[in-house]
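Student:
Attend to each token:
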Amino acid sequence: MPSVFTHHQEVFAVGPDWLDRLRQEAAAAPLGRARLCLHRRAEEAIQEMVIAFRGDSLVRPHRHRGRSESLHVVRGKLAVLIFDEAGRVTQRVNLAALGEKCGTGMGMAAAWMYRLSEGLWHTVVPRSEDLVVHEVTQGPFDPAEQEFAPFGPAEDGALRKFIEQALNERP
């Protein structure tokens, strides 16, 4: 099963059928996520995606120099952790779908959208079993421009432990 989907239509709409498909694909994907690219080519100046995450999906801390990133939560809850150069959490942004409360451990109110304007070290941590986000960033897409944090382990077990500890840090 593919975990990245594209389209080539002039007008493209995303409805419940796509959300269900992405959620099913994420459940079966090795990385626990599936993405629908709303842009038609990697060379486009605006990269816009709908991404479904499995609740246990890990995103290694990274940054995108010279690029901004916006996330809008469509379904579920997440935490965005911002790190300094040494790997200490400097900020935590709790996000939940519009109208949804975060609940215990995340406070009662949450934002539903955020924008990271600088190339800061960050990670996205699903806080619900069912997470779908709408992401917008600058293109063109070049995987070589994503820089992984030297403090963020690459191995799943060590990364999971690092993220769990980071979630408990007070910024």
User: Anything to note?
Assistant: The mean pLDDT is 89. The radius of gyration is 16 Å. The first helix runs from residue 16 to 28.
